[in-house]
Structures are given as C-alpha cells and as structure tokens.
Amino acid sequence: MSLPKDDAAELSARWTEGVLLKRDVFSTVERGRFRGNNGEVDAVLRRLDEVPWWSFLLARHLFAREKRALARAKGLNVGPELLWAGRRALVRGFVDGVALHLAKPHGDLAYFRSAKAALRRLRRAGICHNDLAKEQNWLVGRDGRAYVTDFQLAACFERHGRLYRILAYEDLRHLLKHKRSYAPEALTPRERKILAKKSFAASLWLATGKKVYRAITRGLFNFTDREGGGRRLVNDAPVLAELIRKNPAVRDTAIVAFADRRSGVGLYAFVEADQARLEGQLRNELSAAKGPKPPEHIQVVHALPRDGSGKPRTEILQLVAMNQLDLIEPMMKNDQDRAFLKDILEQRKNLRDRFNFEADLPTG
C-alpha cells in the first residue's frame, strides 16, 4: 500500500529520513527532520503505507484519533506539536526526552508535579489520552518536565460529561500508579484514595475487555512487551542469553531490541568479555544450538554499564542499539558510565540505520 500522491509529494519535499523507531501492523514511526516555514526541525513521522490490508481500517481509525488530538493539543506544551498532517501520514515535533521506563525518575517530585499539570491542561482542552498506563507514553524531557506522546487512543470531547469524567479520572489514576512506582513517599492521602478506587468502567474493562485485548494483541499482533521487541525479546532473548553465557569467556550479556527496516524487529546482544574476536565464535555456537534465530548484532565490550545494584543498564544499551545517541548523555550518572559508553559507542554495530543525532555525545 502506497501513500497518496499528495502525501508522498509533501514528504519528498520536506522530510529527511532518519532513524526507524517502530514498525508494526498499525504504522511505521521514524525520527528525522522536517522542513517547515522556519527551517528544519527534529520531528517524528507516522505513516500508513507499510500497514497490511487486514489491519488498515483500524490503523486509519487510530491515525485519525491521533491527528485530531494533536491538533487540539497544539500550544498546550504537553507533548509533540502537530507540524503537518496528510491523509495517511503525519509529522509531529520531536520531544527531547526519554521514556519513563528508561529515565526512571526515582524520587523526582518536580517531574510528577509537572505531569499532573500536563494532565490538567489536557483536561481543560477536553482531551483524554486513554493510554497512560504505558510508561513509554510518558517522557522525561531534557528540561526535567513531563510530556506525553502517542495519542492514537485519545478521545476529544466538546462537553465534560460522564464519559469524559471517567476517562479523565483513569488518566490521573494511571499517572499516580507511576508516581507510586518512582516516588511512593510523595503520594498524598487523596492520591492514595484515587489509586485504591478504580472507576466502574476500568473494573469492567479488566474483567472482560482486557482479556480479549490481550488475546488479540499478543496472539494476532505479537505485542508482548513495552519496548516493542515482541516475541523475540520476550521469548527468544532469554534463551539466547543463556546460550551465550555458557561460553567460558563470557562474564555476562544483555540483549535489547531495536527497530529494523528489513526484519521489523532486531536483537542486539552486548557481551561482556575480554576477547574482542569472540563474536564469530558466539555466532557459530548459537547457530549450532538450533535454537532461536541469533541476534542481528553481537558486540563484545569490556564492561557493561550497570546501576547501583549491579544490573546492566539496558535502557542505555537500547538507545545505543536504536542509534538515538543524543538521548543518552542526560542519563549518565558519573564519569565511569561515560568511560563505559565511549568504548561501546566506538565499536557499535548497528550502522545501517543511523542519522546525525550525535552532536551531544559524551567524549569520556
């Protein structure tokens, strides 16, 4: 399925292709640059030309909801600005920040105050997001503020009736669930009360609709994880990691997913070891094991970046795998992290789909 001629002509003249962020049965999403009236800006493009025929009607419906919500949210400064919209493609501004589950703003009370203020602005505009339970739809901006993204399920209301109030309540309750995860000590008595009381609609959804939703998304559409790695990340990666660790030269490994223009989803294995030439041996061992398809990329590093508990910081490794390198620097905790990162970046493997988002790279 191709884009309409007017959409294709507009994008040909104004869009510069960058990094693929996501591709599924509802759309292709990529980061690049868009030429507006005031010059080029970082932006994100959603397009429907690679959507299969059997999901196109639903994809078009979700696209229309996002286009309408972004148009209404223009100027609210709560998320990406709508820069251009055609019949089967739209361009929204790029928010300089990372997803909540990558940034992990533990104890950051200012962030959650900002998030609550963003919801108030959406509420006044008559917009309910309806998908804020997902941490990847909350962004932690480089300025420390909260932003929301992915308005495909958003609903717009002219009047603040009962349905609107229920959906707005659920948006707030989902925000408070994230606050409970990252700043539980800051929850007020009223917020705890909201967390303890689901709306009737939410309770009914959990008991009925959500089971059907999971059966469809996990069975038919292969959506099984928040990072977009699908079954490969959820099912294949643990098996591959176990096989890699069997090699006596390997100290540890971390496998992350990245969007790939050819296969849709790729796996990238970072292997902690001293032998730089271990990659070929590991690839042969994985192929001989007759298990899951080996990762598209295997990179041997002298050390994996780790958090305070010693766990690999997969949120950083995923940004490396996705070539979103300019988003990494704000996540660096210390000079030791920067030293690890410098080594990893110099030898990184996914060079096919990259762009010049590297101006702010740490230099060690």
Automatic annotation (TrEMBL):
Gene3D superfamilies recorded: 3.30.300.30, Transferase(Phosphotransferase) domain 1
Keyword Kinase: yes
One term of GO molecular function: protein serine/threonine kinase activity
UniProt entry tagged with the keyword Transcription regulation: no
Keywords carried by this UniProt record: Kinase, Serine/threonine-protein kinase, Transferase
Superkingdom, natural source: Bacteria
Name of the protein this chain belongs to: Serine/threonine protein kinase
